[in-house]
Amino acid sequence: MARKLKLKHRGISDLLGIYGQVLEELHERGVTRSRNAPTGDYAEWLVQRALGGELQPNANKSADLIVRKKKIQIKARVLSDPEKPGERQLSSFRSWDFGDAVIVLFDRHYAVRRATQITVAELKAAAREDKWVSGQRVIARDALLDRGRDITEKLQEAAAGQDE
């Protein structure tokens, strides 16, 4: 039987770091194929703290956050090898009913590696149809992210301030 870890007094950053290490170990042991379990929710949480606005209900397909009447879609990935394009493929876009998107790339321990706010027009130009999921797929390559507004520091500050 596993010993219970004493986690009550740990900060959010510590808990996510431990969780990232656990996911990594499970992956190395072949138990899981992905490290992306809490990624989307954490990204939404950080973006809301960095940009303000109001998080939308989970069932809202067009936007995750509304900031000053602008609809924002949030996509995130955890990268173990940032050079592999497949690791940068975002979950499919099934609606373009938003103004901007925020793309958040985490390292394997959930530290913000890169965050970019980009227009829907730039994303549409980079999208490719994916009939398998009835949507459009986008790969968050550096060349695409360079077209947006870098908000990495804002998200890193939001992450650093989360334990206060």
Q: Could you explain how this protein is built, in words?
A:
With 164 residues, the chain is of the alpha+beta class. It is 30% helix and 23% strand. It has a single domain, classed as PvuII Endonuclease, Chain A (3-Layer(aba) Sandwich), CATH 3.40.210. It is built from five helices and eight strands; from the N terminus they run ααβββββαββαβα. The strands form two sheets. The protein has a six-stranded mixed sheet with strand order 1-2-3-4-5-8.
Could you give the topology of this structure?
Blueprint: H1 12-28, H2 39-51, E1 54-55, E2 65-67, E3 70-78, E4 100-106, E5 112-119, H3 120-126, E6 128-130, E7 135-137, H4 142-145, E8 149-150, H5 152-160
Parallel strand pairs: 3-4
Antiparallel strand pairs: 1-2, 2-3, 4-5, 5-8, 6-7
Helix pairs in contact: 2-5
Q: Write the CATH architecture name.
A: 3-Layer(aba) Sandwich
Q: Which strand order do you get reading across the main beta sheet?
A: 1-2-3-4-5-8
CATH topology (level 3) name: PvuII Endonuclease, Chain A
Helix content: 25-40%
CATH class: Alpha Beta
The parts where pLDDT drops under 50 for at least 5 residues are: none
Tell me the strand percentage band: 15-25%
State the helix count. 5
Mean residue pLDDT: 90
What is the number of strand segments?
Answer: 8
* Radius of gyration, taken over Cα atoms and rounded to an integer in Å: 16 Å
Task: Find the structural class using helix and strand composition.
Answer: alpha+beta
Number of structural units classed as domains: 1
Inertia-based shape? globular
Distance between the termini: 34 Å
Multimeric organization: single chain
The helix-strand sequence is HHEEEEEHEEHEH
